[in-house]
């Protein structure tokens, strides 16, 4: 099974900060990596797919990079609505999907 | 507009059974891939199962042999039959459309809570 490890598990940041979250796969997954945002009490929302492709309607301050085993989600200038938990998810081993443990972004 | 609405959650005793339903609007269950994903209280996301448009089904090891995913095309409804429930199955269960072209879960329901407790 492919394991996904996110870091950090939580972080505190201020409005306007640049934030980066990393995700590491236990084996090469090429670019089969997606990122989701989840707010409390809500369903996850797709942000990035295929490692770097921005889902329609997602602000351009979100970006994704990486391939193989190491991936990054970046938020260029943190906005109040960006405080949430972020999950990476691999689809290399489809149909068996795996999520990372999540990164909670909190207000400093 | 695409929407998915889950129902059927509730309190069940260990060893009991429950059937969840998910009704999409804006697309048909028969021509799409559909998944269940769960989230234990305060925990992360866990993929549970998927049914392909052709009818093939797949499960996470943690639920294999206990859960069954199915659909009723005439009712445009997705199901998750959960048997031999355990305390660790307690979670919010989401149904989601699996876009096989981009390998993404692109539309999600609001979730339904299943609590396994005596």
Question: Could you please describe the fold and organization of this structure?
Answer:
The complex is a heterodimer of chains A (108) and B (118). The model of chain A has no long low-confidence stretch (mean pLDDT 97). Chain A has no helices and eleven strands. Helix content of chain A is 0%, strand content 49%. In chain A, strands 2, 4, 5, 6, 9, 10 and 11 form a seven-stranded mixed sheet that branches. In chain A, strands 1-3-8-7 form a four-stranded antiparallel sheet, with no helix packed on it. Chain A has strands spanning 4-7, 10-13, 19-25, 33-38, 45-49, 53-54, 62-67, 70-75, 85-90, 98-99, 103-107. Chain A is an all-beta fold and 108 residues long. With 118 residues, chain B is mostly beta strands. In chain B, the strands form two sheets. In chain B, strands 2, 4, 5, 6, 9, 10 and 11 form a seven-stranded mixed sheet that branches. Chain B has no helices and eleven strands. Chain B starts with a strand and ends with a strand.
Could you give a short description of this structure?
The complex is a heterodimer of chains A (108) and B (118). Chain A is an all-beta fold and 108 residues long.
Q: For the report, how would you describe the main beta sheet of chain A? A: 7 strands, mixed
Shape, per Cα inertia axes of chain B = globular
List how many beta strands of chain B DSSP finds: 11
The tally of helices of chain B reads 0
Distance from N terminus to C terminus of chain B (CA atoms, Å) equals 40 Å
Element pattern of chain A in H and E: EEEEEEEEEEE
Describe the protein's topology.
The complex is a heterodimer of chains A (108) and B (118).
Chain A: E1 4-7, E2 10-13, E3 19-25, E4 33-38, E5 45-49, E6 53-54, E7 62-67, E8 70-75, E9 85-90, E10 98-99, E11 103-107
Parallel strand pairs in A: 2-11
Antiparallel strand pairs in A: 1-3, 3-8, 4-5, 4-9, 5-6, 7-8, 9-10, 9-11
Chain B: E1 3-7, E2 10-12, E3 18-25, E4 33-39, E5 45-51, E6 57-59, E7 67-72, E8 77-82, E9 91-99, E10 104-108, E11 112-116
Parallel strand pairs in B: 2-11
Antiparallel strand pairs in B: 1-3, 3-8, 4-5, 4-9, 5-6, 7-8, 9-10, 9-11
């Amino acid at each position: 099974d492919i394991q996904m490890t996110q870091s950090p598990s939580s972080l505190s940041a201020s409005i306007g900060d640049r934030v980066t979250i990393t995700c590491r796969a236990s084996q090469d997954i090429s670019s089969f990596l997606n990122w989701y945002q989840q707010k409390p009490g809500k369903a996850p929302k797709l942000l990035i797919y295929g490692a770097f492709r921005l889902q329609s309607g997602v602000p351009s301050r979100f970006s994704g990079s990486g391939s193989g085993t190491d991936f990054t989600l970046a938020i260029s200038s943190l906005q109040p609505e960006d405080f949430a938990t972020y999950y990476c998810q691999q689809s290399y081993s489809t149909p068996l999907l795996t999520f990372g443990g999540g990164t909670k972004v909190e207000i400093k | 507009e695409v929407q998915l609405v889950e129902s059927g959650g509730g309190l069940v005793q260990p060893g009991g059974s429950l059937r969840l339903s998910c009704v999409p609007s804006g697309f048909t269950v028969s021509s799409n891939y559909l998944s269940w994903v769960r989230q234990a209280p305060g925990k992360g996301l866990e993929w549970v199962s998927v049914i392909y448009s052709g009818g093939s089904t797949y499960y996470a090891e943690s639920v294999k042999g206990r859960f069954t995913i199915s659909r009723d095309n005439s009712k445009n409804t997705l199901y998750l039959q959960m048997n031999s429930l355990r305390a660790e199955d307690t979670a919010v269960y989401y149904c989601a459309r699996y876009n096989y072209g981009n390998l993404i879960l692109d539309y999600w329901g609001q979730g339904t809570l299943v609590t396994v407790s005596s």
